[in-house]
Amino acid sequence: MSVNTDKRAKEILHLLLREGKASVDALITSLGASSASIRRDLARLEKQGLVHRTHGGAMLAGNGPSVYEAFRFDASFAVREDRFAAEKQRIARAAAALVQDDETIGLAAGTTTTLVARQLVHRKGLHIVTNAVNIGMELSSNVRVDTTLTGGSLRWAGAFSLVGPAAIESLSAVIMNRLFLGATGVDPDRGATIIQPEEAAVFRAMARQAQQRIVVADSSKVGHISPAVVCTVKEIDILITDTSIPDDMAARFREKGVKVMAV
Q1: What distances in angstroms separate CA 245 from CA 86, 163, 213, one per listed residue?
Q2: Who contacts 74 (Cβ-Cβ below 8 Å, separation ≥6)?
Q3: Is 92 a residue whose pLDDT tops 90?
């Protein structure tokens, strides 16, 4: 592959990461390349499992129908996925930008962490460790990413979250460069919290094995506290949220040593 072709392919991926999908005409206009060149690039990227070609264009792999699509009709996941969708997309892009090639990355189950996973499909040499069945399914066809599921039991419809002793025990054998955690509440005094204690136990095990812990949560979660603690505020290295976070709340996190990224 020539340098120009490789550069153009990366530009196509970056555009699709921003927009989700694009027409061939839009790619021609944006990149200033010929229709034949764009179509060859898309064919090559599809062969690598990075994009899906559609009639007249392409979409990022992971944005189209998946092998577990039937389960997405469970309202509990679908509704949560659509809530604050634009904010979550921005958060996911910012989170993925922190990841370096060849790292071991942890992704705890959740809607925002699922979006982070979709932003990582074009990367190479990553080892992703997750307790989320849906994330494992989405990444299963990607030969560039090595994916490990924790094992464990499925307890709640629509959650896709593996929990229990088997999940916790499996995590003792891996060290992660970064862990991305979702939360139903993140508070400058109480830290990151979720609803289910069994799920929180798995998330805590993941946090113990991570060199850096990053909470990805839209601003509606900030200041809220749920029953089960995932990690204390001292254990959170970075909070990635959206620009609607109140200034005073962001300042309180920073006072506790948490880097706040509002995107």
Answers
A1: 15, 31, 20
A2: 157, 158
A3: yes
Question: Residues 124-181: pLDDT tens digits?
Answer: 899 999 999 999 998 987 888 999 999 999 987 667 999 999 999 999 999 999 999 9
The CA-based angle 3-7-8, given to 5 degrees, is 120
In contact, 159 and 191? CB cutoff 8 Å = no
Place of tokens 């970056």: 14
Q: Which DSSP symbol is given to 100?
A: P
DSSP string, 30-73: HHT--HHHHHHHHHHHHHTTSEEEETTEEEETTSS--TTGGGGG
User: Which residues, including other chains, have CB under 8 Å from residue 62's CB and lie 6 or more apart?
Assistant: 117, 118, 121, 138
CA distance 244 to 241: 8
Q: Comparing C-alpha atoms, which of 68, 76, 41 is closest to residue 57? A: 41
Q: What tokens does 243 get?
A: 């620009």
Contact between 196 and 156 under an 8 Å Cβ cutoff? The reply is yes
